[in-house]
DNA sequence: CCAGAAATCTAGCAGCGCTAGATTTCCTAG
DNA sequence: CTAGGAAATCTAGCGCTGCTAGATTTCTGG
Protein backbone atom coordinates (compact mmCIF):
# COMPACT_ATOMS: atom_id res chain seq x y z
CA UNK A 1 0.00 0.00 0.00
CA UNK A 2 1.77 3.13 -1.17
CA UNK A 3 1.54 6.33 0.83
CA UNK A 4 -0.73 7.87 -1.74
CA UNK A 5 -3.24 5.25 -0.98
CA UNK A 6 -3.23 5.80 2.72
CA UNK A 7 -3.87 9.49 2.20
CA UNK A 8 -6.69 8.76 -0.13
CA UNK A 9 -8.19 6.35 2.33
CA UNK A 10 -7.99 8.89 5.14
CA UNK A 11 -9.53 11.45 2.87
CA UNK A 12 -12.40 9.16 1.95
CA UNK A 13 -12.98 8.41 5.60
CA UNK A 14 -13.18 12.08 6.42
CA UNK A 15 -15.54 12.56 3.49
CA UNK A 16 -17.89 10.04 5.05
CA UNK A 17 -17.39 11.60 8.46
CA UNK A 18 -18.55 14.93 7.09
CA UNK A 19 -21.64 13.40 5.56
CA UNK A 20 -22.48 11.35 8.60
CA UNK A 21 -22.03 14.31 10.91
CA UNK A 22 -24.02 16.64 8.68
CA UNK A 23 -26.84 14.14 8.62
CA UNK A 24 -26.80 13.67 12.38
CA UNK A 25 -26.67 17.40 12.96
CA UNK A 26 -29.53 18.00 10.55
CA UNK A 27 -31.68 15.36 12.19
CA UNK A 28 -31.05 16.77 15.63
CA UNK A 29 -31.06 20.54 15.09
CA UNK A 30 -32.49 20.98 11.58
CA UNK A 31 -30.77 21.97 8.34
CA UNK A 32 -31.18 25.63 9.11
CA UNK A 33 -28.83 25.29 12.06
CA UNK A 34 -26.26 23.16 10.26
CA UNK A 35 -23.66 25.83 9.59
CA UNK A 36 -20.16 25.44 8.26
CA UNK A 37 -18.72 26.43 11.62
CA UNK A 38 -20.85 24.00 13.60
CA UNK A 39 -20.19 21.21 11.16
CA UNK A 40 -16.46 21.92 11.10
CA UNK A 41 -16.45 22.01 14.89
CA UNK A 42 -18.27 18.70 15.07
CA UNK A 43 -15.73 16.94 12.88
CA UNK A 44 -12.90 18.76 14.65
CA UNK A 45 -11.51 20.55 11.64
CA UNK A 46 -11.64 24.14 10.44
CA UNK A 47 -14.26 25.28 7.95
CA UNK A 48 -12.01 25.39 4.87
CA UNK A 49 -11.54 21.62 5.14
CA UNK A 50 -15.19 21.21 4.21
CA UNK A 51 -14.55 23.01 0.96
CA UNK A 52 -11.83 20.58 0.10
CA UNK A 53 -14.49 17.89 0.00
CA UNK A 54 -17.59 19.72 -1.19
CA UNK A 55 -18.12 22.76 -3.31
CA UNK A 56 -20.31 24.40 -0.70
CA UNK A 57 -22.75 23.78 2.12
CA UNK A 58 -25.53 23.02 -0.34
CA UNK A 59 -23.48 20.28 -1.95
CA UNK A 60 -23.19 18.59 1.43
CA UNK A 61 -26.96 18.50 1.81
CA UNK A 62 -27.21 17.23 -1.75
CA UNK A 63 -24.81 14.42 -0.94
CA UNK A 64 -26.89 13.49 2.11
CA UNK A 65 -29.93 13.56 -0.14
CA UNK A 66 -28.32 11.15 -2.57
CA UNK A 67 -27.44 8.75 0.21
CA UNK A 68 -30.99 9.10 1.45
CA UNK A 69 -32.68 8.43 -1.84
CA UNK A 70 -30.63 5.29 -2.24
CA UNK A 71 -31.84 4.11 1.14
CA UNK A 72 -35.37 5.09 0.30
CA UNK A 73 -35.33 3.18 -2.97
CA UNK A 74 -34.16 0.06 -1.15
CA UNK A 75 -36.86 0.45 1.48
CA UNK A 76 -39.56 0.89 -1.14
CA UNK A 77 -38.36 -2.05 -3.14
CA UNK A 78 -38.35 -4.38 -0.16
CA UNK A 79 -41.81 -3.24 0.90
CA UNK A 80 -43.25 -3.69 -2.55
CA UNK A 81 -41.66 -6.99 -3.51
CA UNK A 82 -42.17 -8.64 -0.16
CA UNK A 83 -45.93 -8.25 -0.34
CA UNK A 84 -48.01 -11.22 -1.49
CA UNK A 85 -50.04 -9.32 -4.10
CA UNK A 86 -50.21 -5.97 -5.90
CA UNK A 87 -52.73 -4.46 -3.49
CA UNK A 88 -50.63 -5.34 -0.48
CA UNK A 89 -47.54 -4.16 -2.35
CA UNK A 90 -48.98 -0.74 -3.01
CA UNK A 91 -50.11 -0.39 0.57
CA UNK A 92 -46.76 -1.53 1.94
CA UNK A 93 -44.86 0.82 -0.35
CA UNK A 94 -46.98 3.79 0.65
CA UNK A 95 -46.60 3.07 4.33
CA UNK A 96 -42.88 2.49 3.98
CA UNK A 97 -42.50 5.83 2.21
CA UNK A 98 -44.30 7.75 4.94
CA UNK A 99 -42.45 5.85 7.60
CA UNK A 100 -39.10 6.75 6.08
CA UNK A 101 -40.11 10.40 5.84
CA UNK A 102 -41.24 10.35 9.44
CA UNK A 103 -38.15 8.57 10.76
CA UNK A 104 -35.64 10.65 8.80
CA UNK A 105 -37.27 14.05 8.39
CA UNK A 106 -34.06 15.92 7.72
CA UNK A 107 -32.96 13.45 5.07
CA UNK A 108 -36.40 13.56 3.51
CA UNK A 109 -36.21 17.32 3.51
CA UNK A 110 -32.81 17.19 1.85
CA UNK A 111 -34.17 14.95 -0.88
CA UNK A 112 -37.56 16.44 -1.64
CA UNK A 113 -38.13 19.74 0.12
CA UNK A 114 -34.97 21.80 0.29
CA UNK A 115 -34.62 24.07 -2.74
CA UNK A 116 -32.16 21.95 -4.59
CA UNK A 117 -29.94 22.26 -7.60
CA UNK A 118 -29.97 18.50 -7.54
CA UNK A 119 -32.42 18.32 -10.41
CA UNK A 120 -30.00 18.51 -13.27
CA UNK A 121 -26.77 19.06 -11.41
CA UNK A 122 -25.12 15.81 -10.44
CA UNK A 123 -25.03 13.28 -13.23
CA UNK A 124 -26.45 10.38 -11.26
CA UNK A 125 -29.10 12.07 -9.19
CA UNK A 126 -31.74 12.27 -11.91
CA UNK A 127 -31.22 8.57 -12.46
CA UNK A 128 -31.87 7.92 -8.79
CA UNK A 129 -35.00 10.00 -8.90
CA UNK A 130 -36.15 8.04 -11.92
CA UNK A 131 -35.43 4.80 -10.11
CA UNK A 132 -37.48 5.90 -7.12
CA UNK A 133 -40.24 6.96 -9.46
CA UNK A 134 -40.12 3.53 -11.09
CA UNK A 135 -40.77 1.93 -7.72
CA UNK A 136 -43.93 3.95 -7.32
CA UNK A 137 -44.96 3.15 -10.85
CA UNK A 138 -44.43 -0.56 -10.40
CA UNK A 139 -46.61 -0.48 -7.31
CA UNK A 140 -49.50 1.48 -8.77
CA UNK A 141 -49.41 0.28 -12.37
CA UNK A 142 -51.62 -2.78 -11.75
CA UNK A 143 -54.37 -0.35 -10.85
CA UNK A 144 -54.00 2.00 -13.78
CA UNK A 145 -57.05 0.60 -15.57
CA UNK A 146 -57.59 2.90 -18.51
CA UNK A 147 -55.53 5.77 -17.13
CA UNK A 148 -52.02 6.81 -18.02
CA UNK A 149 -49.69 4.96 -15.60
CA UNK A 150 -47.18 7.79 -15.44
CA UNK A 151 -49.81 10.31 -14.52
CA UNK A 152 -51.22 7.96 -11.94
CA UNK A 153 -47.74 7.51 -10.52
CA UNK A 154 -47.28 11.26 -10.25
CA UNK A 155 -50.63 11.44 -8.46
CA UNK A 156 -49.62 8.73 -6.01
CA UNK A 157 -46.21 10.18 -5.30
CA UNK A 158 -47.57 13.71 -4.89
CA UNK A 159 -50.25 12.51 -2.53
CA UNK A 160 -47.73 10.74 -0.34
CA UNK A 161 -45.32 13.65 -0.50
CA UNK A 162 -48.10 15.96 0.61
CA UNK A 163 -48.93 13.73 3.55
CA UNK A 164 -45.26 13.51 4.49
CA UNK A 165 -44.64 17.25 4.45
CA UNK A 166 -47.91 18.33 6.05
CA UNK A 167 -47.55 15.70 8.75
CA UNK A 168 -44.05 16.93 9.48
CA UNK A 169 -45.36 20.50 9.68
CA UNK A 170 -47.92 19.22 12.20
CA UNK A 171 -50.82 20.22 10.05
CA UNK A 172 -52.43 16.78 9.98
CA UNK A 173 -53.76 14.79 12.90
CA UNK A 174 -50.82 12.66 14.06
CA UNK A 175 -52.95 9.72 15.12
CA UNK A 176 -54.50 9.40 11.68
CA UNK A 177 -51.33 8.71 9.73
CA UNK A 178 -52.25 5.13 8.95
CA UNK A 179 -55.86 6.03 8.30
CA UNK A 180 -54.84 8.57 5.71
CA UNK A 181 -52.51 6.32 3.81
CA UNK A 182 -54.99 3.45 3.85
CA UNK A 183 -57.77 5.64 2.60
CA UNK A 184 -55.55 7.09 -0.09
CA UNK A 185 -54.42 3.70 -1.29
CA UNK A 186 -57.95 2.33 -1.25
CA UNK A 187 -59.32 5.17 -3.34
CA UNK A 188 -56.38 5.33 -5.72
CA UNK A 189 -56.46 1.62 -6.34
CA UNK A 190 -60.16 1.70 -7.03
CA UNK A 191 -61.13 -0.51 -4.12
CA UNK A 192 -63.48 2.09 -2.73
CA UNK A 193 -65.47 2.66 0.39
CA UNK A 194 -66.47 -0.52 2.20
CA UNK A 195 -69.93 -1.79 1.18
CA UNK A 196 -71.71 0.15 3.91
CA UNK A 197 -70.77 1.38 7.37
CA UNK A 198 -68.02 0.41 9.86
CA UNK B 1 -59.60 64.83 11.66
CA UNK B 2 -57.15 65.32 14.48
CA UNK B 3 -53.46 65.02 13.85
CA UNK B 4 -53.28 61.70 15.60
CA UNK B 5 -55.53 60.25 12.97
CA UNK B 6 -53.46 61.41 10.05
CA UNK B 7 -50.41 59.83 11.57
CA UNK B 8 -52.24 56.63 12.13
CA UNK B 9 -53.48 56.65 8.59
CA UNK B 10 -49.98 57.20 7.22
CA UNK B 11 -48.73 54.43 9.43
CA UNK B 12 -51.39 52.03 8.20
CA UNK B 13 -50.56 52.93 4.62
CA UNK B 14 -46.91 52.17 5.18
CA UNK B 15 -47.88 48.93 6.86
CA UNK B 16 -49.66 47.90 3.69
CA UNK B 17 -46.77 49.18 1.59
CA UNK B 18 -44.41 46.89 3.46
CA UNK B 19 -46.66 43.89 2.95
CA UNK B 20 -47.29 44.65 -0.70
CA UNK B 21 -43.60 45.19 -1.37
CA UNK B 22 -42.57 42.07 0.52
CA UNK B 23 -45.03 40.04 -1.48
CA UNK B 24 -43.87 41.49 -4.80
CA UNK B 25 -40.25 40.97 -3.89
CA UNK B 26 -40.91 37.40 -2.82
CA UNK B 27 -42.75 36.61 -6.04
CA UNK B 28 -39.97 38.06 -8.15
CA UNK B 29 -36.79 36.99 -6.34
CA UNK B 30 -37.97 34.39 -3.82
CA UNK B 31 -38.32 34.60 -0.04
CA UNK B 32 -34.71 33.66 0.46
CA UNK B 33 -33.63 36.90 -1.16
CA UNK B 34 -36.15 39.10 0.63
CA UNK B 35 -33.85 40.60 3.25
CA UNK B 36 -34.54 43.41 5.65
CA UNK B 37 -32.10 45.64 3.81
CA UNK B 38 -33.60 44.98 0.39
CA UNK B 39 -37.12 45.37 1.67
CA UNK B 40 -36.26 48.58 3.51
CA UNK B 41 -34.57 49.88 0.38
CA UNK B 42 -37.59 49.05 -1.72
CA UNK B 43 -39.94 51.02 0.52
CA UNK B 44 -37.35 53.77 0.87
CA UNK B 45 -36.91 53.57 4.61
CA UNK B 46 -34.19 52.21 6.85
CA UNK B 47 -34.39 48.71 8.28
CA UNK B 48 -35.46 49.67 11.81
CA UNK B 49 -38.71 51.05 10.41
CA UNK B 50 -39.74 47.51 9.54
CA UNK B 51 -39.44 46.56 13.18
CA UNK B 52 -41.84 49.31 14.13
CA UNK B 53 -44.48 47.46 12.13
CA UNK B 54 -43.54 43.81 12.54
CA UNK B 55 -41.73 41.89 15.20
CA UNK B 56 -39.29 40.44 12.71
CA UNK B 57 -38.80 39.32 9.14
CA UNK B 58 -40.70 36.11 9.77
CA UNK B 59 -43.74 38.04 10.96
CA UNK B 60 -43.81 39.86 7.63
CA UNK B 61 -43.96 36.59 5.73
CA UNK B 62 -46.62 35.41 8.16
CA UNK B 63 -48.68 38.51 7.44
CA UNK B 64 -48.37 37.87 3.72
CA UNK B 65 -49.44 34.30 4.38
CA UNK B 66 -52.55 35.46 6.21
CA UNK B 67 -53.50 37.78 3.37
CA UNK B 68 -52.88 34.89 1.00
CA UNK B 69 -54.97 32.34 2.83
CA UNK B 70 -57.86 34.77 2.90
CA UNK B 71 -57.58 35.12 -0.87
CA UNK B 72 -57.28 31.39 -1.25
CA UNK B 73 -60.36 30.71 0.84
CA UNK B 74 -62.37 33.10 -1.32
CA UNK B 75 -61.09 31.47 -4.50
CA UNK B 76 -61.95 27.99 -3.25
CA UNK B 77 -65.38 29.03 -2.12
CA UNK B 78 -66.25 30.60 -5.44
CA UNK B 79 -64.99 27.58 -7.35
CA UNK B 80 -66.92 25.15 -5.20
CA UNK B 81 -70.21 26.99 -4.90
CA UNK B 82 -70.36 28.08 -8.51
CA UNK B 83 -70.30 24.51 -9.78
CA UNK B 84 -73.61 22.87 -10.71
CA UNK B 85 -73.09 19.70 -8.67
CA UNK B 86 -70.79 18.15 -6.05
CA UNK B 87 -68.60 16.37 -8.58
CA UNK B 88 -68.02 19.55 -10.56
CA UNK B 89 -67.52 21.43 -7.31
CA UNK B 90 -64.77 19.13 -6.13
CA UNK B 91 -63.06 19.30 -9.49
CA UNK B 92 -63.31 23.08 -9.64
CA UNK B 93 -62.00 23.47 -6.11
CA UNK B 94 -59.04 21.22 -6.78
CA UNK B 95 -58.13 23.03 -9.97
CA UNK B 96 -58.57 26.44 -8.36
CA UNK B 97 -56.25 25.41 -5.53
CA UNK B 98 -53.49 24.31 -7.88
CA UNK B 99 -53.97 27.36 -10.03
CA UNK B 100 -53.59 29.65 -7.05
CA UNK B 101 -50.44 27.84 -5.95
CA UNK B 102 -49.07 28.10 -9.47
CA UNK B 103 -49.93 31.77 -9.93
CA UNK B 104 -48.70 32.90 -6.52
CA UNK B 105 -45.90 30.51 -5.63
CA UNK B 106 -44.28 32.77 -3.06
CA UNK B 107 -47.56 33.40 -1.28
CA UNK B 108 -48.31 29.69 -1.36
CA UNK B 109 -44.88 29.03 0.08
CA UNK B 110 -45.50 31.58 2.83
CA UNK B 111 -48.75 29.87 3.75
CA UNK B 112 -47.91 26.20 3.54
CA UNK B 113 -44.22 25.56 3.00
CA UNK B 114 -42.09 28.03 4.89
CA UNK B 115 -41.26 26.80 8.39
CA UNK B 116 -43.80 28.87 10.19
CA UNK B 117 -44.68 29.76 13.74
CA UNK B 118 -48.05 30.61 12.32
CA UNK B 119 -49.57 27.44 13.66
CA UNK B 120 -50.35 28.61 17.15
CA UNK B 121 -48.91 32.09 17.09
CA UNK B 122 -51.37 34.62 15.76
CA UNK B 123 -54.82 34.26 17.23
CA UNK B 124 -56.74 34.29 13.96
CA UNK B 125 -54.48 32.21 11.77
CA UNK B 126 -55.62 28.82 13.08
CA UNK B 127 -59.16 29.93 12.40
CA UNK B 128 -58.26 30.77 8.82
CA UNK B 129 -56.60 27.40 8.38
CA UNK B 130 -59.70 25.74 9.74
CA UNK B 131 -61.86 27.73 7.36
CA UNK B 132 -59.75 26.68 4.41
CA UNK B 133 -59.92 23.11 5.62
CA UNK B 134 -63.70 23.40 5.82
CA UNK B 135 -63.80 24.35 2.14
CA UNK B 136 -62.00 21.17 1.24
CA UNK B 137 -64.25 19.16 3.49
CA UNK B 138 -67.39 20.64 2.02
CA UNK B 139 -66.17 19.72 -1.45
CA UNK B 140 -65.19 16.14 -0.71
CA UNK B 141 -67.76 15.20 1.92
CA UNK B 142 -70.41 14.11 -0.58
CA UNK B 143 -68.00 11.37 -1.62
CA UNK B 144 -67.05 10.15 1.83
CA UNK B 145 -69.23 7.05 1.58
CA UNK B 146 -68.41 5.00 4.64
CA UNK B 147 -65.10 6.73 5.34
CA UNK B 148 -64.31 9.39 7.90
CA UNK B 149 -64.86 12.76 6.18
CA UNK B 150 -62.07 14.50 8.08
CA UNK B 151 -59.55 11.86 7.12
CA UNK B 152 -60.70 12.01 3.53
CA UNK B 153 -60.32 15.79 3.62
CA UNK B 154 -56.77 15.46 4.90
CA UNK B 155 -56.07 13.01 2.09
CA UNK B 156 -57.46 15.39 -0.53
CA UNK B 157 -55.66 18.43 0.79
CA UNK B 158 -52.36 16.55 1.16
CA UNK B 159 -52.63 15.21 -2.36
CA UNK B 160 -53.18 18.67 -3.79
CA UNK B 161 -50.45 20.14 -1.64
CA UNK B 162 -48.06 17.52 -2.89
CA UNK B 163 -48.93 18.28 -6.49
CA UNK B 164 -48.50 22.00 -5.85
CA UNK B 165 -45.09 21.72 -4.24
CA UNK B 166 -43.65 19.07 -6.55
CA UNK B 167 -44.90 20.94 -9.60
CA UNK B 168 -43.26 24.10 -8.32
CA UNK B 169 -40.02 22.20 -7.78
CA UNK B 170 -40.29 21.03 -11.40
CA UNK B 171 -40.48 17.42 -10.45
CA UNK B 172 -43.72 16.70 -12.26
CA UNK B 173 -44.42 16.98 -15.97
CA UNK B 174 -45.70 20.53 -16.48
CA UNK B 175 -48.07 19.61 -19.29
CA UNK B 176 -49.85 17.06 -17.14
CA UNK B 177 -51.09 19.41 -14.45
CA UNK B 178 -54.72 19.09 -15.44
CA UNK B 179 -54.40 15.39 -16.07
CA UNK B 180 -53.08 14.83 -12.56
CA UNK B 181 -55.78 16.76 -10.80
CA UNK B 182 -58.52 15.16 -12.88
CA UNK B 183 -57.21 11.71 -12.20
CA UNK B 184 -56.87 12.45 -8.51
CA UNK B 185 -60.37 13.81 -8.24
CA UNK B 186 -61.82 10.92 -10.21
CA UNK B 187 -60.20 8.31 -8.01
CA UNK B 188 -60.83 10.09 -4.73
CA UNK B 189 -64.48 10.63 -5.55
CA UNK B 190 -64.91 6.99 -6.46
CA UNK B 191 -65.77 7.59 -10.07
CA UNK B 192 -63.03 5.35 -11.26
CA UNK B 193 -61.37 4.49 -14.50
CA UNK B 194 -63.67 4.85 -17.50
CA UNK B 195 -65.46 1.58 -18.44
CA UNK B 196 -62.73 0.52 -20.82
CA UNK B 197 -60.11 2.39 -22.81
CA UNK B 198 -59.50 6.03 -23.77
C1' DC C 1 18.03 15.31 7.12
C1' DC C 2 16.06 18.58 4.54
C1' DA C 3 13.60 20.96 0.69
C1' DG C 4 9.28 21.17 -1.43
C1' DA C 5 4.67 19.74 -1.73
C1' DA C 6 0.45 18.86 0.53
C1' DA C 7 -2.64 19.74 4.16
C1' DT C 8 -4.54 22.69 7.39
C1' DC C 9 -5.52 26.85 9.92
C1' DT C 10 -5.99 31.88 10.92
C1' DA C 11 -8.07 35.78 9.73
C1' DG C 12 -11.01 38.34 7.10
C1' DC C 13 -14.90 39.92 3.63
C1' DA C 14 -19.52 40.89 2.53
C1' DG C 15 -24.09 40.09 3.72
C1' DC C 16 -27.60 38.50 7.15
C1' DG C 17 -31.30 39.70 11.21
C1' DC C 18 -31.75 42.74 14.58
C1' DT C 19 -31.07 46.80 17.98
C1' DA C 20 -29.08 50.76 20.92
C1' DG C 21 -28.39 55.32 20.81
C1' DA C 22 -27.85 59.62 18.12
C1' DT C 23 -30.40 62.65 15.25
C1' DT C 24 -33.98 64.74 12.95
C1' DT C 25 -38.88 65.94 12.42
C1' DC C 26 -43.05 67.26 14.09
C1' DC C 27 -46.63 68.87 17.35
C1' DT C 28 -47.97 71.66 21.05
C1' DA C 29 -47.88 75.08 24.73
C1' DG C 30 -46.73 79.71 25.94
C1' DC D 1 -43.98 82.67 16.18
C1' DT D 2 -41.05 80.21 18.74
C1' DA D 3 -39.12 76.92 22.35
C1' DG D 4 -39.26 72.48 24.11
C1' DG D 5 -40.40 67.82 24.30
C1' DA D 6 -42.22 63.79 22.16
C1' DA D 7 -42.33 60.95 18.21
C1' DA D 8 -40.22 59.22 14.19
C1' DT D 9 -36.27 57.97 11.80
C1' DC D 10 -31.51 56.95 10.83
C1' DT D 11 -26.59 55.68 11.67
C1' DA D 12 -23.72 52.50 13.25
C1' DG D 13 -22.70 48.28 15.09
C1' DC D 14 -23.08 43.25 17.14
C1' DG D 15 -22.85 38.49 16.31
C1' DC D 16 -23.96 35.39 13.01
C1' DT D 17 -23.73 33.38 8.11
C1' DG D 18 -21.10 31.21 3.69
C1' DC D 19 -16.95 31.36 1.77
C1' DT D 20 -11.78 32.32 0.64
C1' DA D 21 -6.82 34.23 0.42
C1' DG D 22 -2.66 33.74 2.42
C1' DA D 23 0.18 32.21 6.34
C1' DT D 24 1.54 28.16 8.71
C1' DT D 25 2.21 23.56 9.83
C1' DT D 26 2.75 18.66 8.56
C1' DC D 27 4.19 15.16 5.77
C1' DT D 28 6.91 12.96 2.01
C1' DG D 29 10.46 11.76 -1.20
C1' DG D 30 15.27 12.41 -2.55
Quaternary form = homodimer
Strand content of chain A: under 5%
Q: What is the number of strand segments of chain A?
A: 0
What is the CATH class designation of the largest domain in chain A? Answer: Mainly Alpha
* Structural domain tally of chain A: 2
* Count of separate DSSP helical elements of chain A: 9
Going by CATH, the homologous superfamily of the largest domain in chain A would be: Tetracycline Repressor, domain 2
CATH fold assignment of the largest domain in chain A: Tetracycline Repressor, domain 2
Biggest contact:
A-B, 46 and 46 residues
Mean pLDDT of chain A: 91
Shape of chain A: elongated
The helix/strand class of chain A is mainly alpha
Proportion of helical residues of chain A: over 70%
State the end-to-end distance of chain A: 69 Å
Q: What is the name of the CATH architecture of the largest domain in chain A?
A: Orthogonal Bundle
Brief descriptors of the model:
DNA-binding; MT1864/Rv1816-like_C (chains A, B); homodimer; Homeodomain-like_sf (chains A, B); DNA-binding transcription factor activity (chains A, B); Tetracycline Repressor, domain 2; elongated; 198 residues; HTH-type_TetR-like_transc_reg (chains A, B); mainly alpha
Amino acid sequence: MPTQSRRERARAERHELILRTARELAESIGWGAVTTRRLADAIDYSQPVLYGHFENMNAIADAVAIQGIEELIAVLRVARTTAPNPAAGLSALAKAYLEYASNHPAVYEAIFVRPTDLEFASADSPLLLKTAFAEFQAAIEPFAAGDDPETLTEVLWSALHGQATLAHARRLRPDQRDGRVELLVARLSGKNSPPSAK
